[in-house]
Amino acid sequence: MKPTSTVLLEFNPQRDNLGKGKELRDGLSVALQIGDTLWVANDESISLERLSLQKESKSGNYKYGREHKQFCLSDYLELPVPPAKLTKKQKKTKPEESGFEEIDIEGLDYEGGYLWLVGSHSLKRSKPDLKDGQKIAQKQLAEVSADGNRYLLARIPVVDVDGTYTLTKVDKHKGQKRSAALLDGNAKGNDLTEALRQDKHLGPFLDIPGKDNGFDVEGLALVGKRILLGLRGPVLRGWAVILELELKQDKKQPSRLKLKAIGPKQRLYRKHFLDLGGLGIRDICVQDSDLLILAGPTMSLDGPVTIFRWPGGAEAKSTGIKNESVVTAETLQHVMDVPYGKGVDHAEGITLFSQMNGKASSLLVVYDSASESRQLSESSAVADVFSLR
Length: 389
Description:
Layout: E1 5-10, E2 17-19, E3 22-23, E4 28-34, E5 37-42, E6 47-56, E7 62-72, H1 88-93, E8 105-111, E9 114-119, E10 124-125, H2 134-141, E11 144-145, E12 153-161, E13 164-167, E14 170-173, E15 176-179, E16 181-183, E17 185-186, E18 189-190, H3 191-196, E19 216-223, E20 226-236, E21 239-249, E22 256-259, E23 270-275, E24 280-287, E25 290-296, E26 306-310, E27 325-327, E28 333-337, E29 346-353, E30 362-368, E31 380-387
Parallel strand pairs: 1-7, 16-22, 23-27
Antiparallel strand pairs: 1-31, 2-3, 4-5, 5-6, 6-7, 8-9, 9-12, 10-11, 12-13, 12-16, 14-15, 17-18, 19-20, 20-21, 21-22, 21-23, 24-25, 25-26, 26-28, 29-30, 30-31
């Protein structure tokens, strides 16, 4: 399916450089529209990027980039691995030493005055470099490591300042105090991974790297108080998994969140299995009572990439989704196939997109490994808009 229009994302060149020859626009993993602001992130950073609506053209294409503002998440959250403090000399002589462990941001949503985000929670395997010889390459393939900041599930208050949405660490609204907080954990895991250790479906995959069909979170959606996490992996005999959680604030530590018992036998989560034909979940978002699912390969492959609709998958009942689900292929609706390139343009993030503050009847898609054709100018990238009508 071809996009009905496009959106040009323009980043400030001074904030676009991640070091080591990488740019923000090269690896966009999430997108979220709030009013006239568009929030995106690169999965190799520890920041969120806010782009404001700049103009629209007669062709129906949009441009976001006015007042690109970068929000370093360590300013709002106590990250498991805080960024290293570099001296002015280090920043000047070695700008490629960014001094942080990536969060691998893979999910973003807005609900109840909070912006919610999630890291991949996944391990990674080293890439082999054949220039060093076959023996070294074999050793590299055996190296598995973890970035502690990937174990992040958090919320940050959002406030409207003169029509522009911005983040704040603490906010008082209608007599109630809202504060930034994250699920309790450390650089080796958090309460979610601890709860999943003994799970018969997911426990065995926690020690397998994400791109090896191991545990890998790549989607987040809020349904009232319920949090839905889409898993890129594992895919179990062709079936993908969505986890359902509910969090509560720790009374003793307001900056920490705890899991609530919502599953069978007082389990701290629910599981929903979906037959996506062997594909994993790359992102999810809510449209009315339905859940839209961006599905793609669990491995590092080019395609296929498909948008599915789970009718009623996001019903906002007072008790949430009452039971765990096994959703067959016949229940799911095929919405569209998303185009992809050879080694480039891998769809990673989706968000409902409204034009001129109207009803969100379109879907915005951002891409990892952006092709040259998407890089129209310095520090810019093109996202696609698809009609949902």
